[in-house]
Each structure stands twice: as structure tokens, then as C-alpha cells.
Amino acid sequence: MSAAPWAGGAFGARGTCVLAANPGIMTLDGTNTWVLREPGARRSIVIDPGPLEVAHLDAVAAAAGDVAVVLLTHHHADHAEAARTFGERVGAPVRALDPGSRLGSEGLADGDVVTAGDLEVHVVGTPGHTADSLSFWVPSDGALLTGDTVLGRGTTVVAHPDGELGAYLGSLDRLHALAAAHEATAIWPGHGPVIHDAVGALDFYIAHRRQRLEQVEAALDTLRDQEIAVDDLPRRVVEVVYADVDEVLWGAAELSVRAQLAYLLKR
User: Fold this and answer.
1) Is the whole-model pTM more than 0.85?
2) Contact 87/94 with Cβ under 8 angstroms?
3) Among residues 58, 65, 121, 125, which one has the least CA distance to residue 98?
4) Tens of pLDDT along 167-205?
């Protein structure tokens, strides 16, 4: 995965990434708003309008032109905060799995196909990062738009308790099978740079999650004989498993550890 600076831009024949100016620990370089349009077509599909920042929405509107529909990968504010405002501005519905994120009556569900002229965007249910997480498959460009399920740099947080690790692992397996079967060449993520080896990135994500689970199990064995309150256990596990990670990231790591502990408890 690339560590080079990321600024968005045009990818494939149909994708344009407009990068929001909201960089941070959780958002990397900022939120990627994706504009999809069939070559030569007038109408576009916008995915994840991002934060409610006027300059960003101006840039998205300029890139998108005539918007047929706005789609959301999930409800987190860095992806969805501006969705209603942007939809009203361009006169387009907002479709999402979460009813509270929609503008208009039509939602989104696994297996749906959203069109704008000849452009087809296939909806893939990928819960785990959040319960309402979706990915989008654009067969004509060989691209998977993964929101926060797969990032362009590093790994994502399973946002316990809304997110759930068992579901997340299943989603990674599903994306891997889809990428392999359809020879997907790219991941267009919700944060960070485009990945040009979709199967390789998913192999890495799956192996990383399995490794972290093994590390958490080993940490639990190490801590077993210590008297630790239940509420304190996730942080103590973080201190063992993420000892080599900057402590500024430990809060996010604790969310993932809580998801891992919940997963192990069910096994």
C-alpha cells in the first residue's frame, strides 16, 4: 500500500476522487468523495459527499455536474454529514442502508444495481466496520469502492459496538471472492490512495485480522492470572498488543480490541 501523499484525481475511465480537507488520525489525508460517470455521459453518481464544508461541496458539484443519485457507504459523519445538504443542492436523492441517512424514500440493499445512463454500480453488503457499511462494485472499471471497510493506507477500525468483527471478517472474505472472480484490479477507498492490487490488499487485510486475533488471545493468556476489572481489560490488552503503536492511536485500537474480545467470547 502506498505511503505517498494523496490528493485524489481521476482513476479508470469513470472515477474522479475529490479529496475533502479533513485530514486526521482516523481520516488519513481526508475523506474521498467519489464521482462516477460513464465516458461522454452527462449524469453522474456521487458517493460519500463527506463533511459539511462549503469549499468541498463546491468542488464536488463542479466535478459531478448533473447528479443522478448520491450513495453512502455508511453513516459516519466524515462520509455522510453533507449528504442531505448536497442532495438538496443538486436535486438528487440520497440512498443509504441507514434510513436516517436518506433523502427520499429509496434505500440501498445488498444486490441492488444503481444506474446513471449506461453506468452500473452494484451494491455489496459489507457490514463490520459499522452495521450499515456497504461497498460498491463498478464492473466496467474493475473497481471496488470500499468506504472504510478497506483503506488505502493502514487498516481500519471495527467500530465496536456498532461494528462487529465476525461480520467484518465475512465481508473481507466476500470482497476477496468478488475481486478474484471478477478480476477486480483496484480498490477505490474512502480514505487514502487508490490500491491497484485488490486481491493483494484483501489478502493483507485478512491475514492482519487473523494475526491480531492470535495476538489478543496470547495477551489474554498473559493477563489471565492478574486481577483486572472487566471494564479495564480492553485497555490492558491494547497495552500488550499495540505496544509498538503510537499511543495517540490507542483509543481507536481499543474499539477494535473490544470487537475482538466480543468475537472471541462467541467462539
Assistant:
1) yes
2) yes
3) 125
4) 999 999 999 999 999 878 999 999 999 999 999 999 999
